[in-house]
Design brief:
It is a single chain. The chain starts with a helix and ends with a helix. It is an all-alpha fold. The chain has 6 helices and no strands. The protein has 2 domains: 60 residues, no CATH class; 39 residues, no CATH class. Helix content is 61%, strand content 0%.
Length: 114
């Protein structure tokens, strides 16, 4: 909303958020119709909304931090999930650890040997 209010085009806003050109006008129209309440998705639990506002306030107070939304379907996420699957299959299921320190050392060794 802020980028649009500052004169950003739909394309600018969509590119800045990593979303489609159809998404930005959808949320803008919801905001114009219902202000902040229009930005709350009906399917989102109230607790998540409160959490989001708390995070938003914190980010406003700490401008050096930026929040980036990445779709869960991104191809890089598949690679991360695959890596953890291999870690689990090749290392974690075959070993026992007596402490977190021992587990961490085992994982680091496995990574360096891959």
């Amino acid at each position: 909303m802020l980028a649009g209010a500052a004169g950003g085009t739909v394309g600018d806003v969509a590119a800045g958020l990593g979303s489609s050109r159809a998404t930005a006008p959808k949320w803008r129209s919801r905001f114009l119709a219902s202000r902040l309440d229009g930005l709350i998705d009906a399917a989102v639990p109230k607790a998540w909304t409160c959490t989001w506002y708390a995070i938003h306030r914190w980010l406003l107070k700490h401008p050096r931090f930026h929040l980036h939304f990445t779709p869960a379907s991104s191809s890089w996420m598949n690679l991360v999930e695959r890596w953890f699957a291999e870690l689990t299959r090749r290392k974690l299921r075959r070993s026992a650890h007596r402490s977190v320190t021992e587990l961490e050392a085992g994982i680091r060794t496995w990574i360096s040997e891959c």
